[in-house]
Amino acid sequence: MHKNGSIIHVEISTIIIELDGKETYYSILRDITERKRAVQALHESEQRFRDLVETTVDWIWETDANFHYTYVSPRVRELFGYSPEELIGKTPFDLMPMEEARSQSERILSFAGQRAPLDQVETQRVHRDGHIVIVETSALPLTDASGNLVGYRGVSRDITRRKEMERALRENEAHIRDILEHAPIGLATVSLEGHFLEVNQSLCKIVGYEKDELEKLTFQKITHPEDIGHDLDNTR
After folding, report:
1. Which of 50, 105, 146, 164 is exposed most, by the fewest CB atoms within 10 A?
2. Contact (Cβ atoms closer than 8 angstroms) between residue 142 and residue 159
3. What's the pTM value of the predicted model, to 2 decimals?
4. Closest among 186, 214, 212 to 200, alpha carbons compared
5. What's the rounded Cα separation, in Å, for the pair 122 and 7?
6. Structural domains of the chain sorted by starting position, each given as residue range(s) with its CATH number in brackets
7. 234 or 217: which carries more pLDDT confidence?
């Protein structure tokens, strides 16, 4: 303890020497307070990182230069059904369907050849129970002091549900378009300026124009002059 009351960490080395025929202890004290503080700060930083990794919904990982996993966060259990230990030494391509692995390996290895980051790359993975999981991955290349690629550190998240919703929305939009296209009444989508954006076949038959012709016109162009004002009032 320092005279001012603060705690000092010291490292003591002691040897026994003979002085004037008597054994004497000779000690060297080295102040290692700053080193201890640095170690403590490192431990706290590592703990914060572990807490973040274990609580985030995303999967955090690291690979070597050949894309073999060297670190896998616990989140992988919920994502793919494997323990972190089971994936160490494996590659992302080991978890992909065969065709996906072939195409994605060429793509991702090309990024590695350029030391380029991965930005929201979507890939399919196979869960332990056999179902497909779609993940979105972003990662940064890791290089040594000479600039050589030594691996990648990245994060992947499960976007399966989002992709299913997007597909359902596209299918629903296509279904609605099909219904409108074949509706027995004339239907159109018109811009604020009156330009036809979409028209169905029934409207084309009513006005006698082909679809591509009608989409170059405005509703004012095919409306009787006496009715234009009334139609404009109805659109406001």
Report:
1. 146
2. no
3. 0.59
4. 186
5. 53
6. 1-55 (no CATH), 57-164 (3.30.450.20), 182-235 (3.30.450.20)
7. 217
